[in-house]
Structures
1.
Amino acid sequence: MSEFEEKVRAAFSAEFAGSEPAADLRQRAIRKAVESGRRPLRGPGQHPWPTRSRWVRRTALAAAVALVTLGGGIYARDAVNRAGTAVQPTPSATVYGPFEAFGKLAAPAIHLPAGGFGGGGGGALQSTGPPPYYGPARLSWAGKFPSLPPTAPVYRYPLSDPPADDAFAARLGAVPARGLPEFGPQVRQYSGPGPFDLGIGPSVQLNHVDTTGLPLFSLVYSPRAPALLPRQPPMSDSQARATAASFLVTHGLTPNWPSRVSVAPFWSSSLEEPIYAVRYQRLVDLGGGTKAGLVDAAGQPLGLRVDVAAGGTVVEVTGLRPASEQPAAYPLEAEQGAVQGALTAPPGQSVAPSVVPTVALTRVQLVYTGVVREGFVYLEPAYLFSGIFREADIPQEKLVLIAAVVSKDIRP
Amino acid sequence: MGQADRLLPEAVGGNASAFDRLIGPLVEPGYRLAFAMLGIREDAEDAVQEATISAWRSLHRLQDESAARSWFLAIVANQCRSTRRGRWWSVVKLAEPVRRGAGPEDQTVERTDLQRALQRLDPDERLALFLRYYMDLGLSEVAAVLNISETAAKSRIHRAAKRLRPVLTVPEVLT
């Protein structure tokens, strides 16, 4: 090392005198990072917020994100009827349509989103629970199986329906467009309504966490729209909820299915203010007080999500493309078969840790998840098992998703 | 595949212990980098904390485990730049005298002058010198952290070193 280098190094070292980091900084930093959770990616290899922020920055803080994920048949019936996209209301608990009408079903699967997790920068939702774990584990069952009805509905709708897409866009007040910077070429693009652009296409093309190819739409605050004022003061959860509800009413997107609403703020580094994700998880009423929530391929709540910027602007809307759903009833696997299936299910993430954790699954819930097969989307019931374990003294939640339909109705 | 080679995929898969083994050793260097850029201990700790969270959430973007140091330090540097851009920080903190740590009692006049000269440097030039001579990063790593080419990194270091000429005799610094 030259004399110059030594002197420069010494000068920098002198700056640190008396300013050593806290002894537990590493421990705190790692723990807080892991406990902060991860927001699943919205597409393989893509980091949702950097992707967004590129054009957000280009337009001088013109946008952020609001996701509205709509299951098929969730729109206000009158509005949908105006658009000509017939939507089946959620069937009652006792009327599920023809028995096993769709033949054998493909099994749903849970998995680590392609490319791992993302949502760094400003995009990660605040997590209220331990981060999910999809990798291998030695499993046991130590929970109580809920009382469930013997059958449940499966919903089916076409994977692609361009006329319905156009009708949906027209109902929203959007017109066909091309070359919109926020959407890929495989996405059907529309301009409008108002300051928004609309894209409809497979989930992976819209950079959504779901990687099964579910058809989605995304209503995004346009990069060509007037810039949003950054650094707006925070709003309360109830204000965000009211803003989201008002937006949905205005655009005829209010869900007509039961839902569980939650608000999760996250930081927008481009707007330098919080964004509030108002999430409506679609629930399927199975009767007897049993409701099953729709989840995405990572086991996270799915239904309707509205992100509201702190200034009160809804800036992006993304969700399942509206469709005409057909229901059919299928028998549900009972406890013994379900537990056996969970304990032997392949992991949703294949990388084997150096130490395979031992996990007692203590909870199971009936959920719904989307499966794409042979030109159709199936919303199928599934059992989501979970159990919390600790790795390096940090709690994580092992998730196992298996088909809830009896195995004879599942394709091998 | 050795155990060390599996840290990255394990950490990407959500293994907290693997993440700690991969990124944990970089937290203190990250803090030092943040302190060099922000000059305030609390802000430096906050910045490295935020950077660690960002690293956890975007770990899948790290292609090569051997590049973890420059990758993480780049996140820290970006976080610090973001902090410096913040309205509150720029209005309030920059108006305050930077609370550098007190030097050793026997520090030489030359070192004091050098410290002052270092603090007067353009932040990017100061950062380049810090990475190269305090953290002992190679040119390629300095370039990666600064998100510039190796040639530009070399040029920036040289330019910064030349600005210290009134204080120090600058020999060939880029060998």
2.
Amino acid sequence: MPGKVILLVEDNRDDEELTLHALQANNIRNEVVVARDGSEALDFLFGTGRHAGRDVSAGPAVTLLDLKLPKVDGLEVLRRVRADEQTRFFPIVILTSSTEEQDLVRGYSLGANSYIRKPVDFAQFTEAVRHLGLYWLLLNEAPPPKGSKVS
Amino acid sequence: MPDASFGPGKPWTEPAVLASALHKKLENLAEGQPMNDPGLTERIEASLKALVDTAPAGIISAGASGRILQFNKAAERLFGYSASEMIGKPLTMLMPDRFHGPHLAGFNRYLTTQDPHVVGKSLELAGRTRDGTEFPLELSLAAWKSGEEIFFTGIIRDITERKKFQQLLRETEERFRVLLESVKDYAILTLDADGHVTSWNSGAERIMGYRAEEIVGRHFSVFHEPEAVEAGRPQGELERAKAEGRYEEEGWRVRKDGTRFWASVVIAALRDPEGNLRGFGTVTRDSTERKKAEDTVQQHAAEVSAVNKELETFSYSVSHDLRAPLRAIDGFSRILLETYSGALDQQGRHYLERVRASSQRMGELIDGLLTLSHVSRSELQLREVDWSRLAGSIAKELRRSAPERKVEFVIHAGMKATGDARLLQAVLENLMRNAWKFTSRHPRARIEVGMATKEGKPAYFVRDDGAGFDMAYAGKLFGAFQRLHDGDEFEGTGIGLATVERIIRRHSGRVWAEGEVQKGAAFYFTIGS
């Protein structure tokens, strides 16, 4: 069973707080796990380090992934998730300030499900988060957990 | 006059027949036999006379006295004397004075020694005509005996034309030689079919350092670097020239003193009219300076590309790093306004609004700057753009943004523009939005998008009858962050026209504006030079 956890990978405390506020403002009550760098995100996703022993098959309902991160950057996190049999179907939404074409291209090439630019305007940002929650937590049909076979 | 006795249907002048008859007569004479055919002598003499008279060359015979015995028609034409005038006259009459002495000396020597000094050879001499004109002639001299008497017969050809031709040839060769010699900037040399130097000009000496006598005969591979010779390149070049007629390349060559120079080389195969390879002509230019300049340009290009790379990194961090704090300022002030508005009085809320407005404006500025830098960096993809249609759709969008406004759009039909579609759209959007913005204080407005001829060239324009501007500040319009109106009057970042200017410049065009305060403004631009 995919969990209902939202993984927020964000190194900027302001953006973290604003994102949490926007989720709350939109009545999205799912548990939010915050990873402040790429390596922490990988620990959560693969059940290693601080998250050793976590049931990995219960992946986050959606991962909101910033690109510019300390230690391991967002694109590398994406690459590793897509390369692993257990995690490759996890929905990953890139949520970043960058509108650089190269980031968009790399993000999609590595298999991002979506690419969202954080607007400067907080009203627009809140709106974006509302759509995100609605789509990924309610509308989107999550992939079956690892191990289930096509009958 | 045809004569049947010399064979049916054959012309009586046929040399072979004549020669055999002559031979026969001479044989008979030598044997002292009387001739069986009494008419033969006359016939032979008649035909000989005809032959001599119709010969194209002058034929003059003389006895041992040096007096003329025979003077044919061609000789008459050559010298301007008639035969009757000349028979019995001395040969010296036909020569310029300076030849008289040598002629007589040679003549007498032959008579005494019979040394065939000139007899039987062709000589180039000069003749003198009746009117004293000299002309070059070729003399073939024969001496013969009849009994004990010696006779001379000379065949004379006017070689004026040949001399002229030879002179022309000499002059042409000389001109060519002078030309080759005077070419100092090119090494021009010829090679034999195996690649050995056969000729060498002063340009070759100047560029490669060898004197002609040092290099003629040596193989041209001495001009190549040892590695090139080892790799068989010199032979390869000749093979290519042989196969394709011509071989061209640029590469390093070596001078006599061992220094290198960057050479532009052309090798052409030289063939005779039958197509046999006679050798090669090669022209070499020392292009070292140009090569250096090109290398410098390349180095600069690499530096520019490195700077561009840095710029890219910079704009990346601008887009990423400057946005985050702005979002925080905007976000937290908004949360404060919405959630804690009760704790603030009106003045406090006003200040917060100002904070938010400023952060949003800064966001726009950053976006504008990024667009501007993007315009400079992105590669142009040229294609034809339907300018009229594009203007129409922008007008529609503007109308939708403020349906209450009374603005008349006049868009010329059938306009096309060739350029990068995305960038040209940005140009038209900027200009039309500007027109829309600066007419907003007028109750009615007219915005025209069209083409006009400016300074003989087609120019696109966007014209409005809005706020306009003072032409004194026209130069400031296209600078980044330059604004002619304050932010309260008309909002804007001051980057739009700078972006327009940069896009037009990248399309090798020019943009300029005409305006008058409260009468309106017109922006013109051209695309392509």
